[in-house]
Amino acid sequence: MPVNSFREDEKSIEAGKAKTLLRLFSYLLAYKKEILFVLLLMACCVGVTLINPLMIETAIDDHIGSGDYPGLLRLIAAAVFLNLTMVLFIKLRMRIMNQVCNSILMEIRQELYTHIQTLDFHFFDSRPTGKILSRIIGDINSLKDVLGNCVTTLIPDFITICCVVAIMLAKSPALTAASLCSLPVMASGMWFIQVLSHKRWQIFRKKSANLNAFVHEDLSGMRIIQSFTAQEETNKTFLRLVEEHRTAYNSAVRINDAMGSVIDLCWGVGCAALYYMGIVVIGVEQISVGTLLAFGSYINMFWRPIMNLSNFYTQIITNLAAAERIFEILDTPSEITDEADAVEMPPIAGSVTFDHVTFAYSDAPGVNVLQNVSFHIHPGETIALVGPTGAGKTTIVNLISRFYNASGGRVLIDGQDVRRVTLESLRSQMGIMTQDNFLFSGTVRENIRYGRLDATDEEIESAAKAVNAHEFIMKLEKGYDTQLSERGGGLSVGQRQLLAFARTFLSMPRILILDEATSSIDTKTELLVQQGIDTLLKGRTSFVIAHRLSTIQKADRIFVIDQGGILEEGTAKELLAKKGAYYRLYMAQFAL
């Protein structure tokens, strides 16, 4: 199965810039009232901004020129009042938009996390956890400015530009044409820059994901790294990834910086053209000082929003790659979903049937792990699965739990095709234990209760006693209230397994799957837990995968799995008597 590791860049998914932006901005629709109020505030602010140059023109031409100082003071008082009000409105709209943007980010993050939980094992098997984390955390965080500025920059600045152009045209078309003569150059430069910039920001996002994936993997495997004194090698890898990350960022930023230079150049050309047209071509005798100063203010009011829009455009190009990566995950369908006509699985009795089942992984459809496998398990039977690594033992139990779909044939539980029942009703009646059971950060009690969230403290302790975990738990510093770090740090491997047994026992599953569940437990601990396992197996259909053959001697039947199917089937005594594949496995373990 191909895996995208931290050594490889993820493939870019081109969904179309306009489509991605519209999808992102659609989240704003849920906050129509807040957005409309912010737009009202900003309309007031834009109005004050547009009036300011006119007040300057009036002050110079009408009041200062004629010596009307009382009128000038009244105009100044009005200007101060309007501008102070504008400042308050700006503060208010910033607060509202921050609240809206944070709510949207939380919504997107929750939507992404919820969707990821529905994805099948193939999704997680084919990419590092760190790359998934980079999308849930880093990519989503980068969208905040884009969402906020869509309302606070794009709309008001666009309106400001239109109003400024209209006022300038009304006052002097000639001066307006001179002021805006450099617009074609700016448009061409921005288009060329965004084409290059988007590609480079895509590369940067990929390098960020690679770095996150490596750090997550490195920290998770720190015990191995220190055990084999591999710190120097991992340092080299980290430095290489950091250098790639830095290089990608610098490359993208250099292109973005060029956009500001283009705007500044065009702004300067526009200002020079304005004053050349007004002073040299038209002549100062044809234009009042107030009008020329007002035009100077308006041209600044024109180019400043252009600069803001270019910065916003840069933000879009910068973060569009992040939005594409988020929506790529949201659009990734799960191969394992409830069928449209799926029904609730009734209480399971425990009958399991494989009806000519064939299975191959989706990324290797030509390689069958299982080929035309058929068997029937009666309720309450304990079935042991043995065979070489990679023979398909775990695949069989994964198909029973419907973690994968069979490529051919049917998997039936109590006569019900597992594809025709809901996943929750199916899996909620199953208990699955693996060799490396995960423990969450939290108390011992919380970890056991994960098996059944509504369990009482008495039921938790009863489950622990049943698998002989109670004794060691009570020896911990705070007993059941002892805090555990992630993965159960501070506990032995055997103790972690005992807690996992207690968690599974608490769930009271109708079908139990033990996948190498006792391989990490020492012989003394195994004798203790075997009594709990016997209790757990009693009255339940059970599948036990084991390389340690001593743990499956009491199984009702043993399946020897190899070459894509069941080579042998029978009790331990029957299979030993055959002197076939099971006999050879047995003798390889016990002959010495």
From TrEMBL:
Q: Ranges for the ABC transmembrane type-1 domain? A: 36-318
Q: How does it sit in the membrane?
A: Multi-pass membrane protein
What's the protein name? ABC transporter ATP-binding protein/permease
Q: Which SUPFAM superfamilies match?
A: ABC transporter transmembrane region, P-loop containing nucleoside triphosphate hydrolases
Indicate the transmembrane segments per the record.
35-56, 71-90, 146-169, 175-197, 262-281
A Pfam family per the record? ABC_membrane
What Gene Ontology terms describe where this protein resides (cellular component)? plasma membrane
Example of a GO MF term: ATP binding
Ranges of residues in domain ABC transporter: 352-588
Enumerate the InterPro entries for this protein.
Answer: AAA+_ATPase, ABC1_TM_dom, ABC1_TM_sf, ABC_transporter-like_ATP-bd, ABC_transporter-like_CS, P-loop_NTPase, Type_1_exporter
Q: Check the record and name the PROSITE patterns matching this protein.
A: ABC_TM1F, ABC_TRANSPORTER_1, ABC_TRANSPORTER_2
Native source organism of the sequence: Candidatus Acetatifactor stercoripullorum
What domain of life?
Bacteria
Q: Which CDD domains match?
A: ABC_6TM_YknV_like (cd18545)
Alphabetically sorted, this entry's keywords are: ATP-binding, Membrane, Nucleotide-binding, Transmembrane, Transmembrane helix, Transport
Where is it located?
A: Cell membrane
Gene3D superfamilies, per the entry: ABC transporter type 1, transmembrane domain, P-loop containing nucleotide triphosphate hydrolases
How far does the signal peptide extend, from start to end residue?
none
